[in-house]
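_Per-residue structure_
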Amino acid sequence: MSVPIYQVDAFTDTPFAGNPAGVCLLSGERPDAWMGAVAREMNLSETAFLLPEGDGYRLRWFTPAVEVALCGHATLASAHVLWTEGRAGAAGQLRFHTRSGELGARREGDWIELDFPARPERPIELPPGLAEALGARPVYTGLNVDDLLVLLEDAATVRNLQPDLARLSRLEARGISVTAPADMPGIDFVSRFFAPAVGVPEDPVTGSAHCCLGPFWQARLGRDALTGYQASTRGGLVKVRMLGERVLLQGQAVTVLRGELLA
């Protein structure tokens, strides 16, 4: 039986920008090994697998190397596919059951708002080798449940980073989020995200990283509503709103590929 599969560019309204994600719509259980193989075949930073469950969908995310506990852009892509392909009917809200608890998605015109858990960092001493691997001296270093957060001096330093990915992969973290105050009108902060340890050298736009960037910049700028720009080659815009222990992430998405898995 064939399985519908899509490729969606998330956190953008323009094809071939933002962060591409695979979205696979399942009608029944599939083995973990099969999902891992599909993710390697798609060779995107994440491929999402959706299975109807109760009042929503069971949602899992795989990189080409591992399953991950939380992924923003592939959740945005999943919600986009369910609505644009008529799988969610007229429902204005969606529920996803995941390893990180229940996540929500809501339509706001051309935007989709995701309801995610906040993942604030705590300050740590500079890990040995981090500055050398980045090629830049951090102003501040923090760690949350998954990732290192590194504050750099300015946006130009973030944009111009050419890190040693092999050295970054040896650090004890899923990934490394680097950030600085923005140098663009209407933008509060810029960031980039590197996760070579889980098979993603640089993620173009990372929703889950903004679950940490949101509370980090809220504390520094004194505002609950923020706009971040992830300054990868593809680039992408993420609107962030803090709501207690939750983070509301807004983004747009566009489908660029629709097909069937035959294996």
